[in-house]
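Practice problem: predict the structure.
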Amino acid sequence: MSEIENITLKKIGRRIQKLRTEQNLSQQDLAAKINYEKSNMSRLEAGKTNMTVSTLEKIANALEVELIELFRFKK
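Answer:
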């Protein structure tokens, strides 16, 4: 994976974490909502794993935001 891809994954992960904490959800809570392992959620938020669009859509739905909201971060 390129450095740009790594940076983007970290930004998306931080954005998910921000949206999750704004809703007072733990990683475990969000993981349970999308039938995901908590350890995978931790890696996702840390930007250490590449996520599918399907997973991102599940996260957006669980957070009750539009999918595009996961990509709203500073460049």
